[in-house]
Fold this sequence. Notes:
By secondary structure, this protein is of the alpha/beta class.
Amino acid sequence: MLDNKTHKKRLLTQLNERLKSRERIKSRTINCYKVAHSTVNKGFLNGESIERVIFFLRSKGCEWSTTEAGGCFMCGHYFGTTTGNPLPKGAFYIQFMQEYRKYDFSKYPMLCIYNAGSILNENEIPQEDLYQILKEINDNKNIKSIVLESRPAYITDETLDLIQSVIKDQVVEIGIGLESMNETIRDLCINKGFTFKEYEEAIYKIKRYGNIKALKYLSIKPLFLTIQESIEDTLSTLEKLNGLTDIVSLEPVSVQSGTLVEFLFTNGIYQPPKGWIIKELFIELTKRNINLPFEVRIGGFEFFPIPEKFISNCPNCDKKLYKAIDLYNSTKDPSGILTLSCQCYGDFKSLVSVENEHIAKIDLEERISYLISELLLPVRTKLTS
Length: 385
Ligand code: SF4
Ligand SMILES: [Zn+2]
């Protein structure tokens, strides 16, 4: 018999999977020889402010999204893919080259290549394509740093050897969505589908390669957590990551279409994070004297399909918020974030108090049970019938 926690988790993942598979059956015409999107954003490299280029390769999607679990609750990258249909041989390399030729990389020393999943998973991108792409990058001495993404399962000696056999002088960052150090949060609130042990094994492999670095994504305010719980979880994760990462990107949850996050947001059950949560995090880091021995970025803006809603405060101060985040990302100076002020800060503080008073006292599993019985069960029945 299933224990209570497993049963609740199954109901959530079934709904998550239903939401994804509804999109899967919609017919769509996709050009497999053109990237889904590319953009330029601020960055920081070797102590200097830089601009970096981001390619969103058109892909078949993250394998974790095609499982019965339906992928991570906040992730809608799958809807910008061929939803599991394989791409023609060599298509990734063609996509890459077409976009690559458009940019003058003497202005952009960092190139991020995302494939809406794990670029090191041979089932998602053939190693031959990856090899060819990396070879082009290696020949371009203007590019100093490359960012790739992968789940830990595909970070193997074989894939790391492949990278190192091609990339000679540049630094390669491998982004992994650890999201939280807390196994329950990673499982129940994010549906990540891997354990800390798996993450740790990947990190120890990466450490053996001098020019390959580990970049960690941490989820800010995932489903079912209060603001304060998310702050505490992030601070505790940051403290425990000492020696287990080279860079951390704090990723405030955004609302991407077709996800469980969007479903709960449109039903008034979930509120994406306010920008103030970032200010609170920086205040607490200073107050608690937490010195982090790795670079910290603020991310969560670079997704495809572009989310419906990002971290925000109010129309009067959103511009200041984004400017402060940009300033932080390109200088590592948090003063713009720490000095943010607006009338809406008071509303945020009141919300924190209300959540602490009324929600934090309810055990996380009990909260989820309530949601399932009140809202998810009737909807799931409709979706499965
Ligand atoms: S967040 Fe990453 S691992 Fe999770 S479903 Fe999206 S692409 Fe896959
Ligand atoms: Zn405001």
